[in-house]
Write a structure and sequence with these properties.
Blueprint (H helix, E strand, L loop, with lengths): L13 H4 L10 H4 L12 H8 L9 H5 L6 H9 L3 H11 L3 H11 L1 H4 L3 H4 L5 H14 L14 E5 L3 H12 L3 E6 L6 H4 L9 H14 L2 E4 L9 H7 L2 E4 L19 E3 H9 L15 E5 L3 H12 L4 E5 L11 H9 L3 E3 L2 E8 L5 E14 L5 E5 L5 E4 L2 E4 L38 E3 L2 H4 L4 H20 L19
Helix pairs in contact: 3-5, 3-10, 5-6, 6-10, 7-10, 11-19, 15-16, 16-17
Amino acid sequence: MHNESIQIRNPKYAWRDVARAEEPKREVRDRITDFRATYRPYDAATASEQAGRCIQCPNPSCVEVCPIDTPIPELMRLTADRQFKEAAELLFSSSIIPELFVHVCAGERLCEAVCVLADKSEPVPVSFIGRFLLDFGWNHGVFETPVEAPTGRRVAVVGSGLCGLVAADVLSRRGHAVTVFDAYHKPGGRLVNGLPGFRVDRQLIEKRVGLLAQRGVKFRTGMVCGRDLKLGELRRDFDAVFFGLGRANPVRLEVPGAKLRGVRQAYPFVLRNTSDAKLETPPVSVHGRRIVVLGGGETAVDALRVAVRCGASEAVCIYRRDRPDMPANPSDVANAEEEGARFKFFAEATAIIGNENGDVTHVRCVRNLPGEVDSSGRRGAVAVANSEFDVPADVVLVAYGFEAPKLTQMDEFAQLKVDGRGHLAVDARMMTNIPGVFAGGSVVRGPVPLAEVARDARNAAEAINDYLCALPRASQAPDPVAQGSPAS
């Protein structure tokens, strides 16, 4: 991948003399036959060469925007000097969960977006270098720093997705006994139960869950709030409770024909084909069929790529804005196109058309023009009069986003205050109106980028630690999980 013929006159200008190198991709004909990773990691020479493009800013903006305070310039310096073990040790010791540096930042690339080289050349590929260091660390026996001494305090974390895992990691490092509860039967939330393997290396997340378990974190799966978990019992058996629930029900399609046979939600389709999660919804076959996906986020693009791998004859995405305004990662969109998916921009579904048997035959759309910039920073969409057109379809997959998670109103859950949107209300310490009960992520903010979820979880965990440290000396009561408490 690297070019050994390049002569860098001055390391300060490596960014000018060395072009940015993307991670090598598997050939399309190979990757559409499975759900394994699209990209292959850097080799050592390329990682060092690319890290050398970092100009070591005195006030690095990449660190300012990093949700987990990763010391990016120092990691780049060590990697450029081929001190890979030292760089991996720094990554493992300074990050909340090293995998986040790869998977959260690889998707959103906040650090790369603000890299000063973005205007002059191309940003340093921080996420790719992070993946190299993560693999190097695992393969060369790099371990994380020891946890603090046990405090005797117990914390219940509800939700084992990104938010819950970050909170569990921080709190267990502080010496608190953490039990994580989740409704899924496999810990990891959407990182394990939803994101396809071509986008996230699920084994890395599963390994992290295993390491947390080795540290003493307990995982209780198949536990549903209201049915298996009662807030009163959680408060009785634990010194603090943290709600880090992720996304909830998908937003429904509200157009004529939305209930025709063949109109399905995209997320369960992706989930069924990329995980072993148990679903109540019946499967949908796409082999040899024309698939239309509605929406422009990550789930929409995942559905397209899954449909291609499942043998769809066509996979078309209809999105109401233009390509630059798509919430999905541009590289994922490009990968989908390489694999055969097509995108129709500035178009919006107004009706689903079916035959006399109730089967889908077309998606009726209207063309849009760009409108004013909205609160998201993107241009809105304005329908063009008399611009209707039809897109042939056998199956329509809806990917219009997700509703914010809402807690059950059973028992003490009903006492938790919510805001005008129905989200849990928290104070500056991320504590709810019930003392010792904290919350963060989607259950508080609604749909937000994963980087903000990670930041929320870290801040909440530190607030919980401060709260626990201020309590009277911890009792040595029996572990409620080990004793078979109803809360377990």
